[in-house]
Specification:
The complex is a heterodimer. In chain A, about 0% of the residues lie in helices and about 50% in strands. By secondary structure, chain A is mainly beta. In chain A, a hairpin with a 5-residue loop joins β9 and β10. The termini of chain A are far apart. Chain B is mainly beta. In chain B, about 0% of the residues lie in helices and about 55% in strands. Chain B contains no helices and 11 strands. In chain B, strands 2, 4, 5, 6, 9, 10 and 11 form a 7-stranded mixed β-sheet that branches. In chain B, strands 1-3-8-7 form a 4-stranded antiparallel β-sheet, with no helix packed on it. In chain B, a hairpin with a 2-residue loop joins β9 and β10. The chains are: A mainly beta, B mainly beta. Chains A and B meet through β5 of A and β4, β5, β9 and β10 of B.
């Protein structure tokens, strides 16, 4: 069974940084776009960023531009989300999704930004 | 960035039919927005039901169908089952970004 696993979440102070990872098993991520989606507590889904197969095309939502960077290492079958200058409003569960038309989702990793 | 709108909540009787819609602040939704629909149960990750307006994954129950209706993307549930009670989100794609709707809570009652 295909698995996506997010890691790297945790508690961080405002202004701090975290690097999220999306690892995969039984799927070759280099064949697919990968997206990051977040969900604040009790709120809906928010599309955060995506990256194409070779990393040459990246997009992100306006609220994270200049602070978050999506990247990938196809040799490690992984995608990353570097999050800098974190704010309280970035507190959320972060999911990655990939595969044929976003067929696969991870279980998410919780990021809490608080002093 | 664009705002994507969904009904906050809908109720359907068991065995009944309900249609969820997904509109865009930029105008009519077309196949070019590559609409997706996702189902999410409390405490769980989303699950992709529909992609590219009306295509289903192998796990998508036949009672779900996607379409374009009156300038919006639509998800129709025909023959609702108790297990269909969940939150449903649409996603529209724009140049350089994608935007989720606020979600529709579907109650089967």
């Amino acid at each position: 069974e295909v698995q996506l696993v997010e890691s790297g979440g945790g508690l961080v102070q405002p202004g701090g940084s975290l690097r999220l990872s999306c690892g995969a098993s039984r799927i070759t991520l280099s064949l697919y776009w990968v997206i990051w989606v977040r969900q604040a507590p009790g709120k809906g889904l928010e599309w955060v960023a995506n990256i194409n197969q070779d990393g040459s095309e990246k997009n992100s939502v306006d609220s994270v531009k200049g602070r978050f960077t999506i990247s990938r290492d196809n040799a490690k079958n992984s995608v990353y989300l570097q999050m800098n200058s974190l704010r309280a409003e970035d507190t959320a569960v972060y999911y990655c999704s990939s595969g044929h038309n976003s067929a696969h989702w991870g279980l998410g990793t919780l990021v809490t930004v608080s002093s | 960035q664009a705002v994507v709108t969904q009904e906050p909540s809908l109720t359907v009787s068991p065995g009944g039919t309900v249609t969820l819609t997904c509109g865009s602040s930029t105008g009519g939704v077309t196949s070019g927005h590559n609409p997706y629909w996702f189902q999410q149960n409390p405490g769980q990750a989303p699950r992709t039901l529909i992609y590219e307006t009306n295509n289903k994954h192998s796990w998508t129950p036949a009672r779900f169908s996607g379409s374009l209706l009156g300038g919006k993307a639509a998800l129709t549930l025909s023959g609702a089952q108790p297990e269909d009670e969940a939150e449903y989100y649409c996603l529209l794609h724009y140049t350089g970004a994608a935007v989720f709707g606020g979600g529709t809570k579907v109650t089967v009652l």
